[in-house]
Amino acid sequence: MDKYTIFGNPIHHSLSPKIHKHFAKQTGHLISYEKVLAPLDDFEGYVKDFVISGGRGFNVTVPFKVEAYDLSNELTSHAKTAGAVNTVKVEDGRLFGHNTDGIGLVADLCENLGLAIKDKDILVLGAGGATKGILLPLLEQKPARILLANRTKSKALDLANSFSKFGKVCGFGLEQIKDKPVDIIINATSASLDGVMPDIPSGVANGAFCYDLMYGKKTPFMEWASSNGAIRVVDGLGMLVEQAASSFEFWRCEKPDTIDLLSSLKEIAD
Ligand code: NDP
User: Fold this and answer.
1) Which of 86, 92, 136, 264 is 20–30 Å from 166 (CA)?
2) According to CATH, what is the number of the domain 2-99+238-269?
3) Quick check: CB of 256 below 6 Å from ligand 1?
4) Could you tell me if 57 and 90 are in contact, meaning their C-beta atoms sit under 8 angstroms apart?
5) Fold of the 102-235 domain
């Protein structure tokens, strides 16, 4: 049986073992997949032990995505541009780093939710690790432009600058967002984790498709979007399942079907 795992800290909340066990059953692959709480000061040691024990691949979540990037011997283009790795394949002791977060988001938006991104104006809130992972896959869909707004304005400016070779991205502080509708708003801040909605003008949501990367409960961003005229409001559960499917494909060269799993997880969440 091929061994896979997810490293994080904290990790108790992770749905990844459930998702990957479902994919393995569906595709007939014989794998094990466990969650492991790695200590903040010894992620590298845990990775080494896992590789020595014959592990074939692993996912990485908060706060180890940049360390996983640094430890990888080779990187895919998505990992390189993101500067972060959430999926590692182990071959002959070498680590191949990939980033499936943005691929998962775009699959959920375009395939599951039927949203066309081409020529749309997208407002992305936040400039942390998740935003780094989603910008390239979003830009590959050729939106008209991405307005990237962050509480710490300098981070939005730096990120917009480094991604501008892939498409039109403009960086702002949250306080500079105009009170004018956009087509799509993606909340990639961690504010929802603290039960907070960033302070931005309400008019921006009018008629917009609003997506919160956070999942599992109706977030303050989702409440705000619903009460300010959004046409659709969605959480990040679909992104979670799709990024996992993309990791599974990276490891096993077979893309699992996600629709049944997504509906059953949504039923549990509702
Ligand atoms: P980071 O810690 O790297 O970045 C956090 C971002 O949120 C920063 O831009 C920060 O701004 C901003 N922020 C935090 N609190 C506030 C606030 N009160 N008001 C305004 N902005 C705030 O987190 P990640 O990028 O890794 O994760 C972001 C979110 O995405 C999390 O909720 C995470 O759970 C979710 N996620 C979901 C995934 C999925 O599969 N559905 C996958 C990956 C992430 P500043 O720079 O000023 O500090």
Assistant:
1) 86
2) 3.40.50.10860
3) no
4) yes
5) Rossmann fold (3.40.50)
- Tell me the pLDDT of the chain (270 aa) as tens digits: 999 999 999 999 899 999 999 999 999 999 999 999 999 999 999 999 999 999 999 999 999 999 999 999 999 999 999 999 999 999 999 999 999 999 999 999 999 999 999 999 999 999 998 999 999 999 999 999 999 999 999 999 999 999 999 999 999 999 999 999 999 999 999 998 889 999 999 999 999 999 999 998 899 999 999 999 999 999 999 999 999 999 999 999 999 999 999 988 887 655
Non-local CB neighbours of 21 within 8 Å, separated by 6+ positions: 33
With a 6 Å cutoff on the Cβ, whether 188 touches ligand 1 is yes
Q: Which residues contact 17 (CB under 8 A, 6 or more apart)?
A: 6, 33, 34, 35
Taking CA atoms only, the protein residue closest to ligand 1 atom 3 is 128
**Distance between Cα 30 and ligand 1 center (Å):** 35
Domain edges within the chain: 2-99+238-269, 102-235
* Rounded Cα–Cα distance for residues 30 and 2 (Å): 6
The Å distance, Cα 190 to ligand 1 centre, comes to 3
| Same fold flag, 2-99+238-269 and 102-235 | yes
- In the DSSP assignment, the letter for residue 228 is T
**How far apart are the C-alpha atoms of 104 and 107, rounded to whole Å?**
5
Regarding the beta carbon of 240 and ligand 1, being less than 6 Å apart is answered: yes
Q: Count CA atoms closer than 13 A to 145's CA, side-chain side.
A: 9
* 103 sits in which H/E element: helix 101-106
Which residues, other chains included, contact 229 with Cβ-Cβ below 8 Å and sequence gap of 6+?
205, 206, 207, 208
Q: Is the CB of 17 under 6 A from ligand 1?
A: no
- Annotated catalytic sites, by residue? 65
